[in-house]
Design brief:
The structure holds 2 protein chains of 2 kinds. Chain A is an all-alpha fold. Chain A contains 14 helices and 2 strands. Chains A and B meet through helix 1, helix 2, helix 5, helix 6 and helix 9 of A and helix 1, helix 3, helix 4, helix 5 and helix 10 of B.
Chain lengths: ~300, ~290
């Protein structure tokens, strides 16, 4: 097989390479630079050393948004993973109209985030005549319990966001389904012959076999959770009392509400650093916990 | 598709009943937000309900007039937002498909030193969160006078999208190499091989990329929020948020009708191309 020249290769990936330079390398470098400046857009950036990063140490709001983002990230990934693996296991059972069931589970994930946020905002209305959530609590408990005032307290507002995040597990389910399909049938049979029940087979055969897929989904989950923005902005506006105020919202507000481009850039760099660190740690942990068939 | 076959003993009627009731409940729960939206959007608001609450609450009949009311509402301009979204989507979809396919060919069929490193670098860029580049991009686009135009929302698409390139590359790798070798022996260069062999065989994958980008544009909220300045340029996502912010003046029924108008095209598109779509996503997830 003949090799092509470096020039030919670069020519083919040229569009991406150019875009990589203009829309990735340049802005990321600028963000790192702006992070060390005082920049208000009205005048050129003024270098201020590590002032923006020192400011982070005493920034209580930053503490709040990091905590909120972490809580939301961890819980949405844990619950989302459990639900999506369970749904994938369910959908892998032979059944009639299989593609319909799969499409149904995926469908909510294609809804625009803004649309789904508007729907759930109404759905969480505390009045059971309006809000679906409290209406259902009313029905299922025969009126014994009254649903909470969802956006009235930090706990319930966060719970509301976590619950609704479960409607967007579609892509993860599809990926798990493909993972389950690749589990060799002989392993199932061998375990059955050895007297392992379905639960035991799930934990000792299926889970290890799909662990690389779990790793992949967790990393995607971290990247997405770190950037949650539109839904809380529309549903709660970050409230009450900043209990659903997330990192990306804070970056946006610092930049475009307060015009502090320098601090906003530093906050963005922090977000990137956190994502990189977490991904690294997860991959490292994955080396021990994940079973790779090829290796 | 090879399914996991249950042993015969488990295949009792009881098992089937349980399976289908769970499936039915799951599907119902999944559709619940959509059913709720449609229900509300077709409701006639109780005229005695307090207007400050958005006139929600008891509905006193069914109508599709809410949809007409939204399309002609003075507080919003849905037809304009729809037009804007479509312009950005079409320009962006064209760009993503063409450029990503080109680059994916360079990452799969052209053999060159450093390809692996470049490919890994490209994958790594998917980890960069938008808020990091948000401020610099705003500054850069302002420098060239693009703030308040559609350009920041579709021009970058012409430089390939990492996920689309990855997806197409995975697909190109599954096309037997003998095909290109035969073409090459016949004197085909890369360009002709790309256009006459690879692209015609990759229509489903190209469709997935087009669909994904269309949905991305349709859903994108932060991009338009940062780069668009005037209400006349708003996309549907921004328009809906604007409409929501006028809640005091907008009854929930109309808001839900607006939401339904925004949601219907993507749902329709999804159900038409459902198979292609789902397969595209699972390819990307497992063969990495």
């Amino acid at each position: 097989m003949k090799h092509d020249s470096l020039g030919t290769g670069l020519l083919w990936i040229g569009p991406w390479l150019l875009g990589f330079g203009i829309f990735t390398v340049l802005p990321v470098s600028l963000a790192i630079y702006y992070g060390f400046t005082d920049y208000t857009l009205l005048e050129s950036p003024i270098p201020v050393g590590t002032q923006n990063y020192e400011r982070m140490l005493n920034d209580e709001i930053l503490g709040t948004v990091l905590w909120n983002t972490a809580i939301f990230g961890v819980l949405s990934i844990v619950f989302g993973s459990i639900l999506s693996i369970a749904l994938a296991a369910l959908l892998s059972k032979p059944a009639r109209f299989q593609s319909f069931w799969r499409a149904a589970v995926f469908a909510p994930s294609v809804l625009p985030l803004v649309a789904i946020a508007v729907i759930f905002k109404l759905g969480y209305d505390p009045d059971p005549e309006v809000g679906l959530a409290n209406q259902m609590i009313d029905w299922f408990t025969f009126g014994a319990f009254q649903g909470p005032n969802w956006f009235g307290s930090g706990f319930w507002a966060m719970t509301a966001l976590l619950l609704m995040s479960l409607w967007s597990v579609g892509p993860a389910v599809v990926i798990y389904l493909a993972g389950l399909r690749d589990v060799p049938k002989q392993l199932h049979e061998a375990a059955s012959i050895d007297g392992v029940g379905p639960v035991g087979r799930f934990f000792h055969v299926v889970l290890p076999m799909i662990s690389p897929v779990i790793l992949f989904n967790v990393i995607i989950g971290v990247i997405n959770a770190a950037q949650v923005f539109a839904v809380p902005l529309i549903m709660t506006g970050g409230g009450p009392e900043r209990s659903t105020y997330f990192h990306s919202m804070y970056v946006y507000d610092q930049a475009f509400k307060f015009g502090d481009m320098g601090y906003a850039s530093a906050l963005g760099v922090l977000q990137f650093a956190i994502i990189l660190t977490l991904t690294g740690l997860i991959l490292l942990a994955g080396r021990k916990l994940v079973y790779y068939r090829g290796a | 598709m090879n399914q996991v076959h249950e042993s015969n003993s488990a295949r009792t009627t009881g098992f089937r009943v349980l399976l289908y009731s769970i499936l039915g409940m799951v599907a119902l729960t999944a559709f619940l937000p959509i059913i709720y939206m449609v229900g509300f959007s077709t409701g006639v608001a109780d005229p005695t309900a307090p207007f400050g609450q958005g006139g929600a609450g008891e509905t006193v009949g069914r109508t599709i007039e809410n949809y007409q009311a939204v399309l002609t509402d003075e507080n919003t301009d849905m037809p304009l937002y729809l037009r804007n979204t479509l312009i950005i989507a079409i320009l962006g979809v064209g760009g993503t498909v063409i450029s990503s396919a080109f680059v994916a060919y360079g990452f799969s069929r052209v053999r060159w030193r450093g390809r692996g490193v470049a490919f890994m670098t490209m994958l790594a860029t998917m980890m960069i969160p938008f808020p990091v580049v948000m401020v610099p991009l705003f500054v850069m686009f302002r420098e060239v006078g693009w703030i308040g135009t559609f350009a920041p929302l579709w021009v970058p698409a012409w430089f390939g999208n990492a996920f689309s390139i990855f997806l197409l590359r995975q697909f190109f790798m599954t096309i037997p190499r003998e095909l290109d070798d035969a073409a090459r022996i016949d004197g085909c260069g890369h360009l002709r091989n790309f256009f006459y062999i690879i692209l015609p065989l990759s229509k489903p994958a190209l469709l997935v990329v087009a669909l994904l980008h269309f949905m991305f544009v349709w859903n994108d909220f932060l991009g338009p929020l940062v780069f668009l300045t005037h209400r006349d340029q708003f996309t549907l996502a921004l328009g809906l948020q604007l409409y929501l912010s006028k809640l005091g003046q907008t009854p929930w029924n109309l808001l839900m009708a607006a939401t339904a108008i925004m949601t219907a095209p993507v749902l329709l598109l999804f159900f038409i191309a459902q198979r292609t779509f789902v397969e595209g996503i699972s390819t990307a997830g497992t063969k990495g």
